Amino acid sequence: MHDGIVDVLWDADEAGVLRLPSGRLVRGRGLRKPMPSGHPPALGIYLLGRRPPEFGWDSRWVRWRDGWLPADRAYAMEVLGEALERSASERVEFACLGGLGRTGTALATLAVLDGVPPEQAVAYVRANYHRRAVEMPWQRSFVRALKKPGH
Fold it and tell me: Exposure string (b/e) for 26-46, b if CB count within 10 Å is 16 or more?
């Protein structure tokens, strides 16, 4: 356990797993790569330009073309809020095709929702998830423009 969060949800040392400041663990991955071994997610957030296939677990599709920002930002924030809430007690994963640009941007946004200052969120995700996460300048600007919860 870490601050009341059960670590068995995801293995903190598994590739793609990001520990948020609250201790919650979420996984990011690229759909082009094979499914990681271990347990499947309870909730998958799929950041794609086209509807993803059915995976056999609960999922949300956020329409998000490669290299861009979510088509419906309000819906994306709603889904990210649900994902953050559910990550306290369920395995939640985020995925796009490569696992870096859209997934990194979603993870940085999630980090802001979990308390990381917006201007530090991209660096946080790059240090704790993947060094090339949040690929495009407008994706970085999107994260920096977010408001911390309660502000």
Answer: bbbbbbeeeebeeeebbbbbb
Beta carbons of 121 and 143 less than 8 angstroms apart:
yes
**Lateral strand order in the sheet of 43-48:** 17-19, 25-30, 92-96, 43-48, 58-63
* Averages of pLDDT over each 10 residues, the chain, 151 residues: 52 90 96 86 96 94 96 96 96 96 98 96 97 95 83 50
Could you give phi then psi for residue 120, rounded to 5 degrees? -110, -5
- Find the DSSP H helices in 13-136: 73-86, 101-113, 118-128
What would you measure as the largest C-alpha separation in the chain, in angstroms?
40
d(CA 55, CA 144): 32
Of residues 2, 23, 13, 3, the one with CA closest to residue 87: 23
Domain 7-144 belongs to what topology? Answer: Protein-Tyrosine Phosphatase; Chain A (3.90.190)
